[in-house]
Amino acid sequence: MTTENDRRELAGFLRSRRERITPADVGLPAGPRRRAAGLRREEVAVLAGLSPTWYTYLEQGREIRPSPEVLDSLARVLGLTEDERRYMHSLAYGKTSRAPLQGDVSAEDLVKRLVASMDDAPYPVYGANLYVDVIACNRAAAEWYTDFGAVAEDQRNMLRWLFSAEGRERVQNWEADVSDIIARWRTAIMPSIEDDRLGALVADLKARHPDFSRMWDNHDVRELRSRLRTLRHPTLGDRTFRALTMQSVEFTPCIVVFHMPVQPGDKWELSRQ
């Protein structure tokens, strides 16, 4: 079952994807009277074989239920990636409930135990919850990122740190890396978007950081993929890792992020769309 927030998010997502497609991309003339960027709603509707009025309702967030075939037609016209197509379907059809916890061990406790078992690992490992709070990190993560254990508990948040002066200095290719993290986080939190704490966190980050607001309003979405990440240490210099995000049913919605060393000339590109 979809919610009003689902429909609002779907509407914003469709608008953002429509505005990035040019008439030339789909074989249409731009015309001298076109003022707005991207395709018009009517053009998307015609190309997808839909009624312009019906598609307008969809972008207005009205309570209508498109078929899977219609969504796939829109995905084709809008040039969506597979992650974006899946995300659109999840917004249109609601979310499945999360698996219940096993026994009396919480998801966060399981993550803490897992990360603690790798405290002596030479490369960074950290765990985070749905709110991107860093709930555990090994010594290498404290060295290459920051010592989250020394940070006030209510500030042990990866997104807050990334937008700090230290985060901007430590993470090379900052714009691309942070945009990617926000896109993946957006996908992850949509099943729980009614959560008041999530809404408050998004609102606070938007109010404090114009860069976050800009990236969030792009409506970019990605699923969990590996990614090269270069970190800068004040004494050890720059080091590139492949960041691998792991999620398991035992500790969903938490994640554990592993860092693997990358050698010069590494051509492994799991992150390719």
Note down, in words, how this protein is organized.
The chain is α+β, with helices and mostly antiparallel strands and 273 residues long. 44% of the residues lie in helices and 12% in strands. It has twelve helices and five strands. The chain has a five-stranded antiparallel beta sheet with strand order 2-1-5-4-3. Helix 2 (41-48) crosses helix 3 and helix 2 (41-48) crosses helix 4. Residues 269-273 have low confidence and may be disordered.
Please summarize what this structure is.
With 273 residues, the protein is of the alpha+beta class.
- What's the story with the biggest beta sheet? 5 strands, antiparallel
Strand content: 5-15%
Shape: elongated
Order of helices and strands: HHHHHHEEHHHHHHEEE
Stretches with pLDDT under 50, minimum 5 residues: 269-273
> What is the arithmetic mean of pLDDT?
90
Helix-strand blueprint:
Layout: H1 4-19, H2 41-48, H3 52-59, H4 68-78, H5 82-93, H6 107-116, E1 125-128, E2 134-137, H7 139-144, H8 158-162, H9 165-170, H10 174-189, H11 196-208, H12 210-217, E3 227-233, E4 237-246, E5 255-261
Antiparallel strand pairs: 1-2, 1-5, 3-4, 4-5
What descriptors fit this protein?
single chain; 273 residues; alpha+beta
